[in-house]
Amino acid sequence: MLPFARVTIIGLGLIGGSIARAVKAKMPTVRVTGHDADPDVRETARAIGFCDDVTDTPGAAVIDADLVILCVHVGAIGAAAAAIAEDLPAEAIVSDVGSCKAEVARAMADALPGHIIVPAHPVAGTERSGPEAGFASLFDNRWCIVTPVEGMPEDAATRVAEFWRRLGANVEMMAPDHHDRVLAVTSHLPHLIAYTIVGTASDLEEVTQSEVIKYSAGGFRDFTRIAASDPTMWRDVFLSNREAVLEMLQRFSEDLTALQRAIRWGKGDELFDLFSRTRDIRRGIIEQGQDDPAPDFGRSHN
Amino acid sequence: MLPFARVTIIGLGLIGGSIARAVKAKMPTVRVTGHDADPDVRETARAIGFCDDVTDTPGAAVIDADLVILCVHVGAIGAAAAAIAEDLPAEAIVSDVGSCKAEVARAMADALPGHIIVPAHPVAGTERSGPEAGFASLFDNRWCIVTPVEGMPEDAATRVAEFWRRLGANVEMMAPDHHDRVLAVTSHLPHLIAYTIVGTASDLEEVTQSEVIKYSAGGFRDFTRIAASDPTMWRDVFLSNREAVLEMLQRFSEDLTALQRAIRWGKGDELFDLFSRTRDIRRGIIEQGQDDPAPDFGRSHN
């Protein structure tokens, strides 16, 4: 039994477009309807053909849906929810894919009183964006975190979880607040730091931008990938998950200061101890299939 | 005309082993002799067979060499140079592959007075180490920075540069001090920050290590690769290039504080401006062939 028969995707970028492709690949009998606020994106989506139908209005997209997934930036969730409120069937489940969950859950509940809301976050993506960037295997063996909110029917979360399993993901249930603290450290802080160091490097006077680019293979290029992510998405994430991000940032700054002192005072043992400890985390990530085990992430060397 | 006929490699880890393999692949008539202080590494190197000969002492390895490359950790360069001093032919050129150049150049000059020294740094590597980790194409289209020191015959640097070009690298000449400032930002600071954030994440109480590993696909995993690099190598780098690293770290901390304030006070425009600016650097790196253009570094998605 498929968990849903008619799935509507609002927002046809990297994630929305990948969900559509994955549904067509893994649940081909499910009808996929899409809508995007940007007419160019709708045009591209129609040309690629990853939806059965792309509608010109959000209301027309949801009118017979049993699952609606809002795949828009976190800061635009409230408006996207409000735009479907009038046409949303009473029994439809509304979900999303945002990287912060507490504020997003509140925004959806406010815009859709009386409706069934099950926020979710597939922890997957690339540095690309737009309807062309998606692919059907994006969620394979990645985690999707479903964050049920109080007062909603229990089986709604179960059905959303089953939907994500069918798309290839592993599913975990978690309270929205805990999600936001976990992602602050595994995703939001890394992005903030990557954006910062790439900015720092490009502002130097005595080292030219051309030198930074040339010699990036020494480590810097690993940071530039996530610093090339969608600026609107990440602005919204930092504003929405402000408290957890600031707390993790504070801890990171303290740890960095300790290392700075160790370097200044020539404490090689302290450096060595930390540098040895961090290898275990990488090993865990590889063992659990969350990254490519090949050196250099499997970059081609030819 | 090949720049050298008999090349000796002291230290048969990732870089030394890759140089040996690259010489055999690209200059098959050149005789490659190797030595490593660790008998297990010598045994492995003999079994793999990437050298024509692996000697049990450093002296025996250099006795008829015209190029000797010290491929040991930066902190061990002085001792490695001293160990070959007695047997080194007067006309041989001594080079290295260290990630810092000013201090390394001084250590080699002190240990080998009257000899010809041409420090160099191939900006290439992976998170792996040891004799099994190397491969012949490691330097293809990567940069090798040659940092000539005053008072040495000019054609020595030219020959070392030609050697690296034959191995597939692009070569740039640079003063040792400038090299150390460039690499502080393109390599040393990124490693320091990656080690720090992986340490910060593993020290959290309320977010478990298992959660950090599970949800690492959100960005964190990009940092764990370089934080899995050789701890001895990196301890030595930070101690050797202390001043430049501390200065870059100071700039980074200031920039991070500015972003922290922008998040705290909800200044979305400031965040958006930085996040847009950093995309250009990534574009430059891709255009100049210094990284894989595929999304996610070309990680396999299947």
Biggest sheet character of chain A: 6 strands, parallel
Might you state the CATH topology name of the largest domain in chain A?
Answer: Rossmann fold
Mean pLDDT rating of chain A:
96
* Biggest interchain interface, per-side counts: A-B, 111 and 111 residues
Radius of gyration of chain A: 21 Å
CATH architecture of the largest domain in chain A: 3-Layer(aba) Sandwich
Shape of chain A: globular
What proportion strand of chain A?
A: 5-15%
Name of the level-1 CATH class of the largest domain in chain A: Alpha Beta
Annotation field: number of helices of chain A = 12
| Major sheet: arrangement of strands of chain A | 3-2-1-4-5-6
Count of discrete structural domains of chain A: 2
Which secondary-structure class do the elements of chain A indicate?
Answer: alpha/beta
- The CATH homology group name of the largest domain in chain A: NAD(P)-binding Rossmann-like Domain
Q: Please state the oligomeric state of the protein chains shown.
A: homodimer
Fraction of residues of chain A in helices? 40-55%
Low-confidence stretches of chain A: none
The succession of helices and strands of chain A, N to C, reads EHEHEHEHEHEEEHEHHHHHH
Roughly how many Å apart are the termini of chain A? 47 Å
Total strands of chain A: the figure is 9
Give the arrangement of secondary structure elements.
2 copies of one chain form a homodimer.
Chain A: E1 6-10, H1 14-26, E2 31-35, H2 39-48, E3 53-54, H3 58-62, E4 67-70, H4 77-84, E5 93-96, H5 102-111, E6 116-117, E7 120-122, E8 143-146, H6 154-166, E9 170-173, H7 176-202, H8 209-214, H9 220-226, H10 231-240, H11 242-264, H12 268-287
Helix pairs in contact in A: 4-5, 7-9, 7-11
